[in-house]
Design brief:
Elements (H helix, E strand, L loop, with lengths): L22 E3 L6 E3 H6 L15 H8 L6 E3 L14 H12 L5 E8 L2 E8 L10 H17 L2 E8 L7 H20 L4 E9 L1 H4 L8 E4 L10 H8 L10 H6 L5 E2 L5 H12 L5
Helix pairs in contact: 4-5
Bound molecules: zinc ion (ZN).
Length: about 280
């Protein structure tokens, strides 16, 4: 954003007596929010309902019935198949910093009593990019769902394919979609939840092929970024381009669900969609 178009600072943003790291400014309405209040409010701005990023652990705590989450495929970490300079060091430092193995967590859980498999992407790890580990974990979660007759929920938040793994990242798009096709053949439901931001190879593969595609309010959904689209098409982009609301209007997603209602909505949908066991 150019410096001249930045919103004006509010006077209460300039207090000097506040300890650092306790307050965060809402990028949408500019209000200052205490971190504790934000956490208690599911990382949603209490003033304007702006949805802040939610990490994978928080997301699972939000969605899973108490003590029902059982993580799978712990310890899968990426190799450096292309010997990409600095990649091994970068992933090692991210593992240490975030406590995550890679940009997705998978596991069994129940949501409002409905058994399911979940994969949650985490934007904190390498901007949620999909390399071999993310693709493999998601594929194994889907295969486990087929074996155990569970529905699948994938929560996306991604900058797209991880370029440091080149073609091996891109092939995860086909691999995950292939697994989802087998899930469909097994008559088991797949619900995709798109969160801010979902872009690139993740948008172009599993994130947008759910039996039902849900999104959080105002989240960015796209393939290439708006600047690239504008430069390629030489056209002015319509207002609200690449937001969840725009995608709902144009049929890419089925419903926008505020974070506070997600668990109940997913539980209801799973109850509708899971096959009846004779
Ligand atoms: Zn706000």
């Amino acid at each position: 954003m150019g410096i001249f178009s930045k919103p004006r600072l509010r006077s209460h943003d300039r207090r000097d007596d506040m300890p650092e790291g306790l307050w965060i400014k809402c990028p949408d309405c500019g209000a200052l929010i205490h971190m504790l209040e934000l956490k208690q409010n599911l990382q949603v701005c209490p003033h304007c309902t702006h949805h802040f990023l939610m990490d994978s652990r928080e997301r699972i705590a939000l969605l899973a019935d108490e003590d029902s989450f059982e993580e799978t495929e712990i310890g899968l970490i990426s190799a450096n198949p292309l010997a990409f300079t600095g990649y091994a060091e970068k992933t090692a430092s991210l593992r240490e910093k975030t406590g995550l193995d890679d940009a997705a967590i998978t596991g069994r859980l129940s949501i409002d009593g409905q058994r399911a498999m979940i994969a949650v992407m985490d934007f904190k790890f390498f901007a949620g990019s999909m390399g071999s580990v993310v693709g493999e974990k998601i594929t194994r979660a889907i295969e486990m769902a087929i074996a155990e007759k569970r529905g699948v929920i994938i929560v996306s938040a991604s900058s797209g394919a991880r370029m440091q793994e080149g073609m091996l990242s891109l092939m995860q798009m086909a691999k995950t979609c292939g697994a989802l096709a087998r899930l469909s053949e097994a008559h088991l439901p797949y619900i995709s939840l798109l969160t801010h931001p979902t872009t690139g190879g993740v948008t172009a593969s599993f994130a947008t092929i759910g039996d039902i595609n849900l999104a959080e309010p105002k989240c960015m959904i796209g393939f290439a970024g708006p600047r690239v689209v504008k430069e390629t098409t030489h056209q002015n982009l319509p207002p609200g381009f690449q937001t969840a609301e725009f995608m709902l209007e144009h049929g890419l997603i089925d419903s926008i669900v505020p974070r506070s209602q997600l668990r109940a909505r997913l539980g209801t949908l799973l109850a509708y969609m899971m096959p009846v066991v004779p």
